[in-house]
């Protein structure tokens, strides 16, 4: 698995599921062209990508359009462009090929994506995660930590997540997994603990 200190941005939820097989760090979806009418999603990507974003789109016309417009919307944020090869084919879950007749990110073999991310990791070691966040006893923001903070699995966890997200300028209806992923980029355990003490009135 490849880990990066900045998020990977892809087009759709199936692209995200595919990339999560290769990458352990945060992966965000633009929801296709929906990003252009979703200010909350754009703000989330911008906040998570304060140090930059890795952008991986399909190689068809739609992917190029999303890449171009999103880069314009993220003006001032460093965007690291990654590209998949143009391979003819059809995704398994689809009845027909795309208009361009090319496989998207979700249709790529794992080996192809691994090669793309390995090349990026080798050329940008300063952005790579050394894996210590996955070692017990480190400052990793996990579901267990969220439970400890009253953000998961308790009677008030949904309300607490909403209040924490409001404090951090994040979308208020994030899932537990998505919140843990984003908090690892935009915050840290110490800040979350401080905010939760204030919320709980400790």
Structure, briefly:
With 202 residues, the chain is of the alpha/beta class. The chain is built from eight helices and four strands, in the order E-H-E-H-E-H-E-H-H-H-H-H. It folds into two domains: 8-127, Dna Topoisomerase Vi A Subunit, Chain: A, domain 2 (3-Layer(aba) Sandwich); 135-200, no CATH class.
* Secondary structure category: alpha/beta
Q: Give the beta-strand count.
A: 4
User: What is the number of helical segments per DSSP (H or I, 4+ residues)?
Assistant: 8
Main beta sheet: strand number and arrangement?
4 strands, parallel
CATH level-3 fold name of the largest domain: Dna Topoisomerase Vi A Subunit, Chain: A, domain 2
Strand content is 5-15%
Strand order of the largest sheet: 2-1-3-4
The global form is elongated
The helical percent reads 40-55%
> In total, how many domains does the architecture comprise?
2
The CATH class of the largest domain is identified as Alpha Beta
Radius of gyration: 18 Å
Mean pLDDT over the residues = 86
CATH architecture of the largest domain: 3-Layer(aba) Sandwich
Distance between the termini: 39 Å
Tell me the series of helices and strands, N- to C-terminal. Answer: EHEHEHEHHHHH
Sequence stretches where pLDDT stays below 50 over 5 or more residues: 132-138
């Amino acid at each position: 698995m490849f880990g990066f200190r900045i998020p990977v941005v892809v087009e759709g939820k199936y692209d995200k599921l595919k990339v999560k097989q290769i990458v352990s760090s945060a992966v965000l979806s633009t929801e296709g062209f929906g990003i252009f009418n979703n200010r909350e999603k754009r703000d989330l990507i911008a906040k998570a990508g304060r140090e930059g974003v890795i952008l991986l789109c399909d190689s068809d016309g739609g992917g190029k359009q999303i890449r171009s417009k999103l880069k314009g919307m993220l003006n001032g944020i460093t965007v690291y462009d990654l590209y998949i090869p143009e391979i003819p084919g059809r995704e398994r879950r689809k009845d027909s090929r795309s208009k361009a007749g090319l496989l998207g990110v979700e249709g790529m073999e794992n080996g192809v994506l691994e090669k793309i991310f390995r090349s990026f990791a080798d050329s940008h070691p300063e952005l790579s995660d050394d894996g210590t966040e996955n070692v017990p006893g480190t400052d990793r923001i996990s579901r267990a930590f969220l439970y400890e903070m009253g953000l998961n699995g308790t009677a008030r966890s949904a309300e607490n997540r909403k209040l924490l997200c409001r404090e951090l300028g994040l979308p208020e209806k994030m899932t537990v997994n998505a919140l843990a992923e984003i908090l690892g980029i935009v915050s840290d355990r110490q800040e979350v603990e401080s905010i939760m003490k204030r919320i709980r009135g400790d």
